[in-house]
């Protein structure tokens, strides 16, 4: 398999890309915050195979984030991502309607979780 974290899967792999994204989003949103930022980073830097190529989960998030099509995300996913943003106190709270909105929100959440973890570590030391 080829490691390819920079280019997007071909259009015929879109169902596989969305399926991989759904799995990533569900896992990401199921992860609590706190001391999990290292395992979350490792998870996102890990990979999945799509259409005979290997992609990091982070690259899949970026591919969905850059997607031009306005594919509406399932309501349950929209609500779950919005709840997680609220629990992390991310402001301003974006509208989460399309898959690319969810991907952007997940990327923002990862940064917030990493920042909060570092801030907490600095407060302890």
Helix proportion: 55-70%
How do the SSEs run, as a string of H and E? EHHEEHHH
SS field, number of helical segments: 5
Low-confidence stretches: 1-6
Mean pLDDT comes to: 82
Major sheet summary line: 3 strands, mixed
Question: How large, in whole angstroms, is the Cα Rg?
Answer: 15 Å
Structural class, by secondary structure, is: mainly alpha
Number of domains: 1
What are its keywords?
mainly alpha; three-stranded mixed sheet; 3 strands; globular; disordered N terminus
Provide structural commentary:
- The protein is 59% helix and 8% strand.
- The protein is mainly α.
- It has one domain (2-124).
- The chain has a 3-stranded mixed beta sheet with strand order 1-3-2.
- Strand 2 and strand 3 (53-56) form a beta hairpin.
- Helix 1 packs across helix 3 and helix 3 (57-65) crosses helix 5 (99-124).
- The longest helix has 26 residues, at 99-124.
- Mean pLDDT is 82; it is low at 1-6.
Brief overview, please?
The protein is mostly helical. The chain has helices at 14-30, 37-45, 57-65, 75-87, 99-124, and strands at 2-3, 47-50, 53-56.
Element layout with pairings:
Layout lengths: L1 E2 L10 H17 L6 H9 L1 E4 L2 E4 H9 L9 H13 L11 H26 L1
Parallel strand pairs: 1-3
Antiparallel strand pairs: 2-3
């Amino acid at each position: 398999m080829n490691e390819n974290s920079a280019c997007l899967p071909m259009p015929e792999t879109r169902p596989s890309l969305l399926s991989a994204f759904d799995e990533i989003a569900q896992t990401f949103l199921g992860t609590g915050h706190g001391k999990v930022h290292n395992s979350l980073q490792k998870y996102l830097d890990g990979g999945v195979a799509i259409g005979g190529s290997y992609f990091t989960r982070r690259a899949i998030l970026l591919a969905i984030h850059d997607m031009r099509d306005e594919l509406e995300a399932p309501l349950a996913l929209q609500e779950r991502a919005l709840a997680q943003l609220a629990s992390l106190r991310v402001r301003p709270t974006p509208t989460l309607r399309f898959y690319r909105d969810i991907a952007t929100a997940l990327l923002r959440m990862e940064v917030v979780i990493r920042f909060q973890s570092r801030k907490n570590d600095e407060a302890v030391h």
